[in-house]
């Protein structure tokens, strides 16, 4: 972000203009949320609990780390995150698994709603190389976020929504 600063010196009638680069400071409040999901995968005794998405563990190989949430195989899996109160959110970042990135396990084709209102696709950035999604919420007040991933077509067998970590960022510090 660039801000222009204009300084007036009263006696000397000098005007000085300078550009100052500022970095937006954000704070992750994901640990304060309540989580719901359409389902939780049960597979081989591994832990695919929803709480894994807010555990602070950045690992992205769920079968090795027991640190990601996964839906069961279903046609419209979803994850819902509810904050304790409305917050002006800068963005939400979802990190998917990186050890298996075939289409049924990618973070692509997401529908995102904030308080029941669809987020425009132009606010959703998908990085398919590293399997993460950044959702720009434009500092809007939001209390709940619902992410779902409808099955694209029947050519795919199994279909999942797998999220390893969620960051929910507000500007500045939480009070």
Could you tell me the strand content as a percent range?
A: over 45%
Helix content: under 10%
Distance between termini?
A: 24 Å
Number of strands: 12
Rg measurement, Å: 20 Å
Can you identify the CATH superfamily?
Galactose-binding domain-like
Determine the oligomeric state from the structure.
single chain
**Low-confidence residue ranges:** 1-21
Q: Count up the domains.
A: 1
CATH class bucket: Mainly Beta
- Mind describing the biggest β-sheet? 8 strands, antiparallel
Number of helices: 1
Going by helix content, strand content and strand pairing, the class is mainly beta
What would you say the CATH architecture is?
Answer: Sandwich
How would you describe the overall organization of this protein?
With 175 residues, the protein is mostly beta strands. It has one helix at residues 62-65, and strands at residues 2-9, 14-21, 26-28, 34-37, 69-70, 78-95, 111-114, 117-118, 124-127, 132-148, 162-163, 165-171. Strands 3, 4, 6, 7, 8, 9, 10 and 12 form an eight-stranded antiparallel beta sheet that branches. Strands 1-2 form a two-stranded antiparallel sheet. A two-stranded antiparallel sheet has the order 5-11.
Which terms summarize this structure?
eight-stranded antiparallel β-sheet, Jelly Rolls, mainly beta, disordered N terminus, globular
């Amino acid at each position: 972000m660039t801000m222009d600063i204009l300084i007036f010196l009263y006696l000397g009638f000098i005007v000085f203009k300078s550009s100052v680069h500022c970095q937006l400071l954000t704070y992750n409040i994901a640990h304060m949320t309540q989580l719901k999901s359409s389902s939780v995968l049960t597979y081989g005794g591994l832990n695919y609990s929803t709480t894994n998405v807010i555990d602070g563990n950045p690992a992205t190989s769920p079968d090795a780390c027991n640190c990601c949430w996964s839906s069961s195989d279903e046609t419209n899996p979803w994850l819902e995150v509810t904050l304790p109160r409305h917050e002006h959110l800068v963005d939400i970042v979802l990190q998917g698994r990186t050890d298996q990135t075939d289409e049924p396990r990618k973070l692509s084709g997401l529908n995102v709603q904030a308080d029941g209102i669809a987020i425009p696709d132009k606010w959703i950035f998908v990085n398919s190389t590293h399997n993460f999604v950044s959702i720009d919420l434009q500092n809007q007040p939001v209390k709940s976020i619902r992410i779902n991933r409808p099955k694209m077509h029947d050519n795919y067998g199994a279909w999942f929504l797998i999220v390893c970590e969620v960051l929910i960022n507000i500007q500045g510090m939480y009070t």
